[in-house]
Amino acid sequence: MALREEFLEANSAFAAEFKDGDKPLPPARKALILACMDARLHPEKAVGLHIGDCHCVRNAGGRASDDAIRSISISQRLLGTKEVHVIHHTDCGMLTFTNDQIAAKIKEDLGTDAGYGRDFLPFADLEQSVRDDVATVKSSPLVAPDTVVHGYVYDVKTGKLTEVA
Amino acid sequence: MALREEFLEANSAFAAEFKDGDKPLPPARKALILACMDARLHPEKAVGLHIGDCHCVRNAGGRASDDAIRSISISQRLLGTKEVHVIHHTDCGMLTFTNDQIAAKIKEDLGTDAGYGRDFLPFADLEQSVRDDVATVKSSPLVAPDTVVHGYVYDVKTGKLTEVA
Question: What's the pTM?
């Protein structure tokens, strides 16, 4: 079965039991999670979130990219969130490459130079990457200056979250 | 109790029961979900994903932004994913504003012009926004040309997913 069909079949079962259709658009907990896209991290489960609780922004690394700042700004200005919780994790793919290496791999696999000159936002130090992203969120002119920002590392082997910033 | 403490307390309970510490870095289902950050959408639950199954990229709108393409490229070139599933949803905040309106709100609330001239990627037509993002993913030089791409709308009132692209 194609994954698309599996998703639709699993969703039919989910929708049949769904009881949270009355939640409003603004997040109940007035917070946003910024986390890595890693398949082993399910942020809502890891911190006990219910449907409607928090915005959840995810990208490769859980980085405070320009696009993450766009999302945080929309979340705060239009939907009333006041906190940002940054979650990176152990064994992250972002620790394993440099910009030059991925650009060369794109060239080799896809035959295009489009990867060169781009910043794919890899990092060499996991805890420092969290501190850097917390600092980027705090210093952005598009983020409210009184925003509460915390940073954590999630351990993919134990499921444990540790605060680091 | 601060939200930070609630997260850490909920995580202690989660970690105490955690049994999925043996999953490898590459996603088992070789796919990536691109979904909106909305608090009412928990993508993994909505399509039946287990820990380790799929990358999950999320931002305001679930848009195929330049940063989402960065994440997809890393997911494909370094971690072997072959499919992208785009999920937008009903009652999305992105349907409610224009770039000028949010830039003016940022100016009013935060006293900065930093919002002007930016594209916050709002949209006026939900299904069309899914088709647009599917097309953007398919046409990116950083995405493999044989990538399987599907697009869906998730109904926040019923939990139901409908394929639209």
Answer: 0.98
